[in-house]
Amino acid sequence: MDEYNTAGAATYLGVSEASVRRWADGGALRVRRVGRRRERRFREEDLRAFVQRSREDVPRRNARGRPLSARVGTLDLPVGTHLAAFYDTDPGRYRLSVPFLRDGLRQGEPGILLAEETVLGDYLAALDEALGGGVAAALKSGLLRTLSSPGRLAEEALATWEKEFWRTRTSGARMVRAVGDVVAAARAMGSHGAVVSLENSLNAMVKRFPTVMLCTYDIRVFDTAMMVEAIKAHPDMFNFGLQHFLP
Questions:
Q1: What tens digit of pLDDT does each residue of 66-88 get?
Q2: Do residues 181 and 93 make contact, with C-beta atoms less than 8 angstroms apart?
Q3: Cα radius of gyration rounded to whole Å, the chain
Q4: Are 143 and 180 in contact (CB under 8 A)?
Q5: Which residues contact 154 (CB under 8 A, 6 or more apart)?
């Protein structure tokens, strides 16, 4: 029978270690204590059951019984989808991300945008133009939230996204749309390996929230090896066709 310590359980669940400790201490996640230091140990079957319960709790349909989904390009994607999109020009940065966020704001769905300070203003200007105005009001009300850095460590970045997703879920929002420009994460974390680790953990996390998440990669910044790792870290892309997410 496989067992995990707190760090291993966090990786398995795609959450921060702080969340694992909180759920275990609160009784939401079954745990046993071992040794004189009373260290936490988690059985794989209990982690698997926790994941299943979390996914079942995510709303999949709206009040009319229709599946919750978000359009990215020409695709309607169900909640729990985590994708990567690639761009090679400044205008290309907004090709999928801006219409994706615009459509959500028009429907009153919260949006989260992570981008470096140097391009965040351009993102917001492009979004404001696509909306025909209203970005300032969305920011003021909290309907649109922005981040310039997720944190320096993968654990910190994962906790940042989890906090944002919980914030929208507890607000009663039916779904949330998230865009992460990965250059911001790579510069903050200083390691492409840390970014890939974060992306793999986000795969599990996004499934636990009524979320569609789009991670955008500037291929002028990342090399071919990183592009391959990015694709592998977003297996949902294979369900819809890689061609939809390329420049």
A1: 777 899 999 999 999 999 999 99
A2: yes
A3: 18
A4: no
A5: 189, 194, 197, 198, 201
